[in-house]
Design a protein that fits this description.
Distance between the termini: 43 Å
Bound molecules: NADP nicotinamide-adenine-dinucleotide phosphate, D-gluconic acid
Number of helices: 7
Largest sheet: 7 strands, parallel
Mean pLDDT: 97
């Protein structure tokens, strides 16, 4: 089982102050990794660092906007110089805008693409330079059901997550020769702040997801920990360019009529 240990490793998790980011970071910490948690909000970062300390994990906080090239470069240089080498990167930070396409402003579309697709490129570029020099590293991009499926109102999000799947494969193609494994996780529907508006009891989408998911429930953020530790550890040293869907079976089935 030493294949799964992260002792001596250091992991940067973008958007790691709550939701899926915090759950995955806690999993990495419990497997032995030192954590570097990023967010765009100072308050959320402070509260999150208190939570990581409360559960006995070693975590540093870095405030930067993942879409801002200069801020990201400075942050990565600062981490590498003052904290230490980044062994594991999780590109988790993300936003969604649920707007019918014909009503969506290009500025809204661009903002979603910026955070969900261009930012993983920017952060990976600056972290990748150090990983390539060390000929070692793990990058995990957080994809989505929308990397494979469309849905009313989430056009920009689907475009970004579809693009992130292919960015993952291309990064794996370019970096595997440097002993860097780049893979993705595609969560199904998970209970977090991001899905709160569509997970209200009685909301048609809430009932739809429960019937559409063979497991018959929403995912709990902790359901991602096993896959995250696998992709961050030596256990996945020959796994490159894969997207592992953790979705309770959504992508495996056409679903069934709600009255069945
Ligand atoms: P969430 O609760 O909304 O968390 C998103 C995180 O990203 C927050 O910490 C947010 O910070 C941070 N963030 C947003 N813009 C940022 C920026 N410009 N710079 C730095 N940090 C930024 O969402 P979640 O549900 O945990 O989702 C996490 C990831 O999983 C996202 O990529 C999402 O698309 C993906 N995902 C979620 C689900 C699901 O069912 N929940 C399923 C599949 C994929 P603030 O809170 O301070 O804004
Ligand atoms: C939505 C949801 C989804 C989930 C997730 C599914 O409005 O459909 O927010 O996008 O967040 O990405 O995998």
């Amino acid at each position: 089982m030493n294949l799964f240990t992260l002792n001596g490793k250091r992991a940067l998790v973008t958007g790691g102050t709550h939701g899926l980011g915090m759950a995955m970071a806690k999993g990495l910490g419990q497997a032995g990794a030192e954590l570097i948690i990023n967010d765009i909000s100072a308050d959320k970062l402070d509260n999150a660092l208190k939570e990581y300390t409360r559960v006995g994990l070693k975590a540093h906080g870095l405030l930067f906007d993942v879409t801002n090239d200069a801020e990201v470069k400075n942050a990565i240089d600062k981490i590498e110089k003052e904290i230490g080498p980044i062994d594991i990167l999780i590109n988790n930070a993300g936003i969604i805008k649920r707007i019918p396409m014909v009503e969506m402003e290009a500025s809204d579309f661009r903002q979603v693409i910026d955070v969900d697709l261009i930012a993983p490129f920017i952060v990976s570029k600056y972290v990748g330079r150090h990983m390539i020099a060390r000929k070692a590293g793990k990058v995990i991009n957080i994809c989505s059901m929308m990397s494979e499926l469309g849905r009313d109102t989430v056009s920009a999000y689907a475009a970004a997550k579809g693009g992130l799947k292919m960015l993952t494969r291309n990064m794996a193609t370019e970096w595997a020769k440097y002993n860097i494994q780049v893979n993705g996780i595609g969560p199904g529907y998970f209970a977090t702040e991001q899905t709160a508006p569509i997970r209200v009891n009685g909301h048609p989408f809430n009932d739809f997801i429960i019937s559409r998911t063979p497991a018959g429930r929403w995912g709990n953020p902790e359901d991602l920990i096993g896959t995250t530790v696998f992709l961050a550890s030596a256990a996945s040293d020959f796994v490159n360019g894969q997207i592992i869907y953790v979705d309770g079976g959504i992508l495996a089935t056409i679903g069934k009529p709600s009255n069945e």
